[in-house]
Write a structure and sequence with these properties.
239 residues; alpha+beta; Collagenase (Catalytic Domain); 39% helix; binds zinc ion
Length: 239
């Protein structure tokens, strides 16, 4: 597996946590929450009714990654305005981008706004990201065509964590402590490094939020300290 980690850059490789096949059995005595909630992933976002509305575009642009030629649109989903950019060499219809964004919980749309500020490209689709499925930071949310709502939820975790950390540099340090205190793994991918654990939790929370109150309460019960910090991040990054 390949991971690019640059300054303020977190790359998500195509890893087992994101495959649709059943997860491998965890090691004895070790439960991974992503496996516990696996069955919820099939219907993730299916019940959302809000539709993306196109406000303007396309506009020809040079995309931030490698100045590659692309097209940009301004769009709105619920109360959130954001940008979608698609690299010219990628064969992808705008509706395909809409479809996956519409599955994202409303609470995560703030990440789409953050990556659309100023000269940023918004939700940017590329033909290739050197083998990764996505890169997310508060400065960009880059995706390949195959990246769906789970990947976008994970990347929203990076986007919003970085935004929260800008105002409160203790966020990741507190997260690391919470991981230890909760004493449960989210996924093998998250086990590698603290900020990926946070992004994996962001995805897990999104899946449980989408599935309803009882599932969300179950996530809280299983990982209460992470749960509290992630809710704090969602609240503090709202504006
Ligand atoms: Zn990541």
């Amino acid at each position: 597996m390949k991971i690019l980690v640059l300054f303020f850059t977190f790359a998500l490789s195509l890893n087992p946590a994101f495959s649709q096949s059943p997860p491998a059995a965890p090691a004895a005595g070790k439960t991974q929450l992503i496996a516990h909630f696996h069955a919820l992933r099939r219907n993730f976002g299916n019940a959302n009714t809000a539709k993306v509305e196109m406000l303007s575009g396309p506009e020809a642009v040079k995309m931030l990654r490698g100045q590659s030629p692309g097209k940009a649109w301004q769009a709105r989903l619920g109360g959130s305005k954001f940008k979608i950019t698609i690299e010219d060499k990628l064969d992808m219809k705008l509706e395909e981008a809409f479809e996956r964004l519409q599955r994202l919980p409303a609470e995560y749309r703030r990440a789409l706004e953050v990556v659309s500020e100023d000269k940023k490209d918004g939700v940017a689709f590329y033909a290739d990201l050197d083998g990764a499925a996505a890169h997310g930071s508060q400065n960009y949310l880059n995706l390949v065509k195959g990246a769906g709502v789970e990947v976008i939820s994970h990347e929203a975790g990076h986007v919003l964590e970085q935004r929260a950390t800008r105002a409160d540099p203790t966020v990741l340090e507190r997260w690391n402590k919470a991981r230890t205190e909760d004493g449960v793994s989210i996924s093998a991918y998250g086990d590698r490094v603290n900020h990926e654990d946070l992004a994996e939790f962001a995805m897990l929370y999104a899946i449980c939020l989408d599935a309803g109150k009882e599932r969300l309460a179950e996530a809280k019960e299983k990982s209460p300290r992470r749960f509290a910090i992630w809710q704090e991040i969602l609240t503090k990054t709202k504006s």
